[in-house]
């Protein structure tokens, strides 16, 4: 018998209940994994609340974790008992002490990268890899605007952009967050609550605009993000924290030959070869120091509700992980 957080009804954090579950031997092509650390993301909050109805109820939430292989199913090669692995998945199931995992999702963890760092940041780091290499290939000399530059993804995005030689401009909500963004590779910060970011970008770039905008905010920033792009610029909308974006008249893009993308990470991870290649590049960035994961805050799995409350209150002080 093992344990898992099971959601039986959508709602507040109190719907996250620890229950016993039973796992047998792994089926062909799968692994039995004992989790060592489990990532907590805002996506999990949306799933729990019912905003995203992508987890069938009753169900086990959670998109990323690290662990140790306990047993290997038939027709699996390249793995053995005791191997450290990590994974991300759009099929959920990570909020558990143990699970069955398709072997195709398992990524071997290299030495020198801790379970805690990877479990709390793999989804973010894979998102950044997608944004900077797959959706838009960033080159040295580009100027890039990052909204929410002090957030979980925003910080890592600034780190990678700076390492690629881009000039990074970030919007933030306070002077404290401006300092965080600057410490993570974003030399130009805009306090969007006190100044229109469009005007600030124009001043910073001497009216030239930016090559790329990474916008996870959505409704409040989308129109302005289009406005600050230079000719043939690219707007990447990968979130909607302020609400969904209104329908866009395609002719709007013609004025400057602009392009717009709306990527979903798990669509880019469907190809197992690309999935493993992106993970390898992410692990290299953790090992080399290009990606700095910051502080991890451990919380017992049984207290998953506390983790969600902390995340929603924005008082976590670092990346949250559940420890079985």
Q: What report would you give on this structure?
A:
It is an enzyme of class 1 (oxidoreductase). Belongs to the zinc-containing alcohol dehydrogenase family. Quinone oxidoreductase subfamily. One of its GO terms (molecular function) is mRNA 3'-UTR AU-rich region binding. With 324 residues, the chain is an alpha/beta fold. It has 2 domains: 2-122 and 266-323, Quinone Oxidoreductase, Chain A, domain 1 (Alpha-Beta Complex), CATH 3.90.180; 140-262, 3-Layer(aba) Sandwich (Rossmann fold). It is 30% helix and 26% strand. The protein has 9 helices and 15 strands. The protein has helices spanning 42-49, 115-135, 152-163, 175-183, 197-204, 222-228, 265-268, 272-288, 304-313; strands at 2-6, 17-21, 30-39, 64-72, 84-88, 98-102, 107-108, 143-146, 167-172, 188-191, 210-215, 229-237, 259-261, 296-300, 319-323. The strands form 3 sheets. Strands 3, 4, 5, 6, 7, 14 and 15 form a 7-stranded mixed sheet that branches. A 6-stranded parallel sheet has the order 10-9-8-11-12-13, with helices on both faces. It has a two-stranded antiparallel ribbon with strand order 1-2. Helix 3 (152-163) links the parallel strand 8 (143-146) and strand 9 (167-172). Helix 2 (115-135) crosses helix 3 (152-163).
